[in-house]
Task: structure prediction
Amino acid sequence: YPSEFLMQKITEDNQIPVHLDVSVSLQYVAGLKGSALVEFFHGNIAEVENEELRHLMWSAVLFYKTPNVEVMACVLLSTKAIYFLLDDSFIHADEHQSDFWNKENSDCENSSFHLSCCFVLKLNDLQSVNVGLFDQYFRITGHSADHIVTCLTRDSYNTHTFIQQLMAVLSLLARTPSPEPVDKDFYSEFGSKNTGKMENYELIHSSRVKFIYPNEEEIGDLAFLVAEKMDGLTNLQSLNILLYVLVFQVNHIEGSAQNTSLLQPKTLILTSSDLFLFDEDYISYPLPEFAKEPPKRDKYQLADGRRIRDLDRVLMGYQTYPQALTFVFDDVQNQDLMQNLTLDHFGE
Result:
């Protein structure tokens, strides 16, 4: 340990997404290659001497306790735990640690010594993994509110790779076998299924960790929600969600010294007639078992919606991934004007 293939793979994966800014401490981690990266893991992060680093991924993360603070993290999967090496901005956002940060490390900017915050979720404490729509994100759930983290990969390949690696590592865990299932009679087997609501597709791993995938109803619920936002659409059957993708909305900051832009996380939904941007709650749904009350906000909140027929042009940047798209719409004051003219002239 480790094999040449693993060393090469971890080195290749150790790249910060180019569009996101991170602290000096995480830039240092991203600069490590091969054996230096493995030594860094064992010397600074690993809690047990004989654990092995199996996978590395850079991702934005959300915590259940701070659902509005999206922070960049280096996610390290070992044979014992999942480690989230967090950006310094998270420590500043955390009220409990801000006093310690300001008092003890006020001169850290001028020194070569930088701190990062590391959140550890032991694999033995892992209870379930919820995979988001179209593998754009996944939520890891432990035994309390402190142990719920969502990784916003915004990339189905990264999500799929991490889930596969996690399943492989969980297979190594020695857990006590589940008790033998009680034989159910015919009536109890089918009598409990009359709730009228289809359960999400669940895969229970041999380690007893649940992997929960969205079912068809979730898309149906989303289509219904979108239909509510669309004026004059009476036939829900004709509404098709063509695309669901997690994106950033770019807001340029006027008057700043540098030409900076603010990236706001959004969910983009494209139908055959409209383009929508939603603010989505990626961490609170589905409700954890210990939740006493529903979340303060809905899962989907409409931020913007435009008709495709009003789309004038699409501007594409020629830089590498991630691609920048600019949608230019013709904003007609009375949106129904064209529709009414069409009906008056060509309708009965």
About this structure: Residues 156-170 form the longest helix (15 residues).
